[in-house]
Amino acid sequence: MAADALSRVFSALADPTRRDMVARLAVGDATVNELAAPYDVSLQAVSKHLKVLEDAGLVSRSRDAQRRPVHLEAQVFDLMTKWIERYRQQAEERYRRLDDVLAAMPDFAPTPPPKGSPS
Hints:
The protein is mainly alpha-helical. 59% of the residues lie in helices and 5% in strands. The protein has a domain at 3-75: Winged helix-like DNA-binding domain superfamily/Winged helix DNA-binding domain (Arc Repressor Mutant, subunit A, Orthogonal Bundle). The relative contact order is 0.12.
């Protein structure tokens, strides 16, 4: 997945309504009307949200007789997970190195100030 495609995915998921739609589609395919039901917006607004998700490769639409279900494209999440995982591993390695440095330091306990003295 190219960097610009990855940017489109993260940009599409930046909107809470689209994230909610993705969460609902993770349970199963749905039509535009079904996706629009919980929102106080027009079908046109929902269609625009779906277009952003579709352009990012997160969803696809198909035809099933009279029904036009929207389907979540789960493989996009695999690509996102790989991208995130790379940085998570780098961060964990830095923390491991920091742990090693701290473990090698001599133990010391700062002495508390005497009672009654200003801090």
